[in-house]
Amino acid sequence: MPNCNKLNFQLLLLFSLLLNSPSFANNSDDSWILNRQGMYKISQGNTLGAIDDFEKACKLDPFNDTALSNLACARNNLGVNYAKKQNFKEAIRQFKNAKAQKPEDISIRLNLLSTLVTVKNTEEADKEIKELLKLRPNDSELAIKAATAYQKIENSLSAINTLQEFVERYPDNAKVNYVLSRLLYLNGNLTESKYYLNRSLEINPLDKKSNNFLQKLEKEAILEQNTNTFTGKHFELSYPDSFSEEWAEELVEQLENAYEEIGNKLSFYPEQKAQVILFQTNDFKMVHDLPDWAGGVYDGKIKLPVPNNSFPSALKGAIYHEYAHHVIYLASSGNCPIWLNEGLAQIFEKDIDDISEIISNDYLENNINLETIDKGFKSSPDRLTAIKLYKLSFNASARLLKEYGWSNISDILRMLSIGKNFDEAANEILGETQEDLEGKIIAFE
Q: In degrees, to the nearest 5, what angle opens at C-alpha 415 toward C-alphas 411 and 421?
């Protein structure tokens, strides 16, 4: 058996001789020249040329960490540009190369993860999340980002497990406990949700958001005692126990119809079961501090008031409206402007054969634009103002549909899901600026 210490000494001596040899010194100098050349090309916007120089610099001197870091950053920036152009295959390739060259760089790996999530590559996204968590096991913000990524690929179980494992190791993190509580709530587990919310409040008892959520949980927990559940293929329904199971089954059939019809038009079919909660009308008002004109709410769960002695068929419009919000939220990753979100929900609610027949100029004024409609919704409008805003949203969305069709609308939602704003999405998908588009969908006809 060779002497390990002696062998190591010989290797170190050889390495020392290589470093001091004239050829190695020349290579090192050339490597730095190429690195500077690459930096100049970056400043000129020539990323591909810079990458070529950085690669040559690294080949000449594998120990030139600066050139290696610059190569990784250049590939990362190129990947971002490809992602913006929706060339996700090439973006992923660039991010993977950048990751190989600079594996400790979290921003590169998060860019790769974001793109994998966008293209719904669940297997590789899951692998990347696990590698990230191993790299930074005590990073609470990274744990939350990992859970968010799991949610976007509709893997709530892994999202919950990720945060539960984190709080087992670091129980005093209020934010992670709160986010975990919200996740459990959205998945219908009120008991565990309240447990982690209380842990969060023990650490940060004055947090307003957590205290408001606790009040909501406690109200829903009281009502849950008098409810039954019915599970369908794509829905988990909670309903008052005064209604029969046959009634619940018929309602779930309506939800399944909405799943097919809305999914077909928006080209998006959620994989995880949606949580649907039905309340007696008075109970709904008790739990949700909403204006009297609100006919339902979507907060990650679909929640609807149900009058006594109502038939499931009477709830069809409300079901389609709130389920549309659910699909739009998932399809756009929560990035859809309010006017489009509410407008599309009304279109699905009304179930209209010829939408052009009921488009009107009601409430239009010279100073109306899409931004003012959104601001109006955010300002807690009274009933009359809300009627006006809903009508404006419906007409704008209906004209958008009439002009461009469902395929383009679903493409806009997809663009919104990767972080584009509506102006960027409309320009890329429709070839219209927002100003020009407004001239078509909210101007007087």
A: 130
